[in-house]
Every structure is written in C-alpha cells, then in structure tokens.
Amino acid sequence: MAVVALVCAVLAAVLHIYIFVLESVRWTDERTRRTFGTTAEEAEATREMAFNQGFYNLFLAVVTLVGVGLWTVSDAVGAALVYAGAGSMLAAGLVLLISSPSKAKAAITQLFFPLLAVVTVTIALLV
C-alpha cells in the first residue's frame, strides 16, 4: 500500500507543478487563458496574484516530493510531509469546490490525487 500512496503523492505533486507553470510562467498565454476562462485584460490584471499563487502550488509539490523521498528513511517523517503537502492541496481543492461550484471540474481535478494520497498514506500507516 505504501507504493500506491507514494505514487498518488507524486502524481499530486506533478499536477501542482503543472499548475505552477500555468500560473507563474504561462499565465497570459492564450491557451492558459482559455484553460482558466480569462480574457487578456483579466490575465494581465491578475498576473502578480497568479505568479504568487503558482509558487504556492510549487512549494506544496516540493514538500510532498520531499516527503516521498524521506519515506524510505522514516515513514513517519515522510508521511508527515506528504500529509502537509497533499493535505494542503486537498484543502485548497475543497475551498475551490465550496466557494465556486461552477469550477467543480477544476476543483475535482486539483483535489483528486491529493485525496488519494492522504487516504492511501493513512491506510499504509495502519497496516
């Protein structure tokens, strides 16, 4: 079960690295604007906010990946970091789902792998 948990955590991290690229690097590109449903003017006006938000996603991914790496040394330390990173990703996805039901698809995409990671890490620690 630990392998499944770590794969889910890595998938959550990879998705959030992709979100980082969209928000911090490609925010004003046409394809990214279509993905987020923003106009060129809205993207330009929110560029600094998106840049910051993208780094937030990157840092959560890094914490999660460090947890995956440290799992081999200490499953308790690794699990704590995976819980911190993936748990925050999950919480952010839930906030998006609750606050903006029209963005349910994006929220579910954002929280799916972190949810699997949190659940499978818990199971792996219990067995």
Automatic annotation (TrEMBL):
InterPro entries from the UniProt entry: DUF1304
Protein name from the UniProt record: DUF1304 domain-containing protein
Keywords: Membrane, Transmembrane, Transmembrane helix
Superkingdom of this protein's organism: Bacteria
Pfam families, per the entry: DUF1304 (PF06993)
Ranges annotated as spanning the membrane: 6-25, 55-74, 80-99, 106-126
